[in-house]
Amino acid sequence: MSAPDEIRSVEVESAEMAAARAKIRRRRSIALGVALALFALTFYVLTIVKMGPALFDRAL
Question: Which terms are listed as keywords in the entry (predicted)?
């Protein structure tokens, strides 16, 4: 049994193509990091708002 032609043919990626893929991957990683940071900040702010201003008036 032999493999189909699509599997047998392997193309070597050029340096420009590899650089473009790396740039896209980096941009996607940065976007996901920013989205995660905004998500965490939203939960932080909502928690403080839900607890109300009395949170800061307590005795230490």
Answer: Membrane, Transmembrane, Transmembrane helix
